[in-house]
Design brief:
This is FadR/GntR family transcriptional regulator. Pfam families: FCD, GntR. Keywords: DNA-binding, Transcription, Transcription regulation. InterPro entries: GntR_C, TF_FadR/GntR_C, Tscrpt_reg_HTH_GntR, WH-like_DNA-bd_sf, WH_DNA-bd_sf. By secondary structure, the chain is mainly alpha-helical. It is built from 10 helices and 4 strands. It has a two-stranded antiparallel sheet with strand order 1-2. A hairpin with a 3-residue loop joins β1 and β2. α1 crosses α3, α5 runs antiparallel to α9 and α9 runs antiparallel to α10. The longest helix has 23 residues.
């Protein structure tokens, strides 16, 4: 999927498909790129998430931008989402370290263990959003929980995007474990540092996806078999 995505993205950024153009049909792209339809559809979904294309039911996929600017996850742009997460989730982690109950720690530990065992990306993404909601719950402030609930769909979409294109799952599990360990220790400083590190890594991965090195992006020819 990554190879197909890189090929289609390069074709758009290099002007082979200009803004307003309709991409070839799925059947044609599958034949040209020699890939299965599920693989192609994953790549097309990623292009849309990046903001390069839009899919119109019954009409096809159309190019709407020549370069990736700011991916959108549900109702929110990635930059807006990350800005809010830094202002909310970092202090929330600190409050959670001070106020968490034994039940909160049991719940977070259970979620973490399930995430570390999970191999299905869709299931892992669902657990990821539950994890961040559980940290907010541990802060014992219903407003924090409501804020995370409001952006929960966007968090899940972002998580899926990062896992599909950035291979974030194992690294994210390690970061989540550091957060849980800080909460168990009751260390406000360690908890805020662990959450800040987690969000730093999210931003780095997003940046790597949005602005890849030109040396790593193919400019001609199809993906390798």
């Amino acid at each position: 999927m990554e190879a197909v995505l890189a090929h289609l993205r390069a074709a758009i950024e290099n002007g082979e498909y200009a803004v307003g153009d309709k991409l070839p049909s799925e059947a044609e792209l599958c034949r040209t790129l020699e890939v299965s339809r599920p693989v192609l559809r994953e790549a097309l979904r990623a292009l849309q998430t990046m903001g390069l294309t839009v899919s119109k039911t019954g009409k096809g996929t159309f190019v709407v931008a020549s370069a990736v600017e700011d991916p959108t996850f549900g109702d929110y742009a990635a930059s807006d989402l990350l800005e809010v997460r830094r202002h909310v989730e970092i202090p929330v982690a600190g409050y959670a370290a001070r106020r968490r109950t034994p039940e909160d720690l049991d719940h977070l530990t259970h979620l973490l263990e399930r995430m570390e065992r999970e191999t299905d990306t869709t299931s892992w993404v669902a657990l990821d959003s539950l994890f961040h909601l559980a940290v907010a719950q541990a802060a014992q402030n219903p407003v924090f929980r409501r804020v995370i609930e409001e952006i929960r769909d966007a968090l899940a979409r972002q998580s899926a995007f990062l896992n599909e294109l950035g291979g974030r799952r194992e690294q994210s599990n390690r970061e989540h474990r550091a957060i849980v360990e800080a909460l168990m220790d009751g260390s406000e400083l360690d908890a805020t540092d662990a959450m800040a590190h987690h969000l730093d890594r999210v931003e780095t991965t997003l940046t790597d996806i949005v602005r890849p090195s030109r040396a790593e992006t193919p400019t001609e020819g199809g993906p390798e078999a």
